[in-house]
Specification:
587 residues, 4-stranded antiparallel beta sheet, globular
Length: 587
Amino acid sequence: MKRTQLAAAVLLATGSVSAMAATYSVTPLPLQDTAVNNFARSIDNSGKMLTVVQREFNPPVDVDQLENDTTFFTQFGAALENEDDALQGVFTDADYTLIVNYLLSNVGATQGQKLAEYRTYITDTQDFSLVPGLDQVTDKFDDYTFSVEATGRDSLNGDFIVGDSAGLVVLDPYENEDGDTINYTYAESTQQAFVQVAGNTTKLPPVDDTLGGYASAQSVNENLQVAGYSSVSFLDVVNDAIENCADPEARTDISEGRCRSNVYSGSFVVPRIDTYFINASTRTRALASFVLAAEVNATIWQLDATGDVISTQTFPLLFEREEDDTNHYYSYAFSINNQGIAVGEALTGDRVSVTRPNSSALLESERVATVYRDGETIELLPRDENILSQAIDINDNNWVAGAVLRSRSDIARSRLFAYNLDTQEQYYPDGFFTSSGVTPNAINNNNIIVGKADSVISNDSIRQTAAFMYNIETQEFTDLNDLIACDSDYELVEAVDINDNNEIIANARVKNTNRYATGVDIINSDGETELVDNIIAVKLSPLSNGNIEECEIPDDEQPYERQGASMGWLSVLALLGVTLMRRRIKK
């Protein structure tokens, strides 16, 4: 893939080379033979990285559950290459792929084996190991159940890993009123915060742990303070539902455990501000009812050296809610620095009108960037300057990186902000062009911010993106694709994290062979393999003696406009499905 490196050409032409003297090498993480896609999550100062894999190859299949507790063989038996062998647990590559895809789509069913689509690994560029979350090793598979979606979000020297995890899926046999046994399968809890220390996983409890509660651990500092959020109270409807589940007549003919799981099932992650969000009963974006019935507050867990919780501190909402107000409100913490200052976002209780690309104006819940310190929840930016705001990360120099939603030509798009808590300095740089949407993900102690930004001007609601680096000191906004080799096979679509060595973990688009769920290449009718587009995590390492390459610009590539010289990995999936078509047409 031949890429345009416009930024390098511009800088060389203007003589501004010194600010971009380091180039980067690209190393894919060693997980391409583990799963179809793998997404960058974090990189710590030791160089250890967290990555979330999607659709792992060779997950275990419980044939007994598949035959007895699902309709798979009734629906798809005739489509199998060898149904008799499949019933004995012997699969062809194609049959195994059909079964795995069925199980992945069966996650919401009341019965049958559950497989997690996403799991987390910690890795350097050589070795890797699973971060299982709340999953457990069982005798049946002599391995983890593969039923638990666990997302590692941050690590400290590779030793302390924090994140969130669904509960372990359990098998709950129940004899109904007709005398039939129903093998219910469900997770023991909804999303839980966890810390992994020396291979041992400990749950970080929410303040209110009714039915397990709801929590996420987002960031850990060198003092073993973990920032995130947790449920602090629930509406009475939750206790009413629990009482109904305990009453055989009220819960109908299902097991009590299955009934309770219906109360807490589902999860919710607050979207970035470039995505529509409302938390009312008339919402267009579905929220889990269990979360809707909770107040969720920013939380800091203080750990000891073994990962046990010493103390827990929560931070209130931005406003005093009325006693009879049953709406869902939250304050969330996404990052914490070594001074113990955390940042995130919170609801104000108000609504604002937002006109997003290719959409008419809609009312949304108002969300604002927040700081958590000295027991207080503090709003960071003036509301009258922004429609919405969100603080994503904070470094030890008290620089906060985040995003604001502002309108240009009446269309609202995300924009980067950098704000210093001590000096009140603040910057709102443009992206690659004036209407470029920008999504920051992380800031390091060298005051460098990384993320993704729209790289192609279009009227589409989802645009093609490129990984960027923004240096607060020089105020330069750089496409990271301009700092790697011209003939690189990798197109960097998002930079996700950066450590203090300026090493970056990023998501890259790359062509790989299409494979079965066994990891074996698919051979088409012409006897050939086919290349498909995948997203993989890569490590970018600075080269101290590197020089910027001035690459040839193909005539058919139209570069974006620049202002002078100067995701959620789920959004990357959307780009994978939408923007690649445009690139093929363009070529």
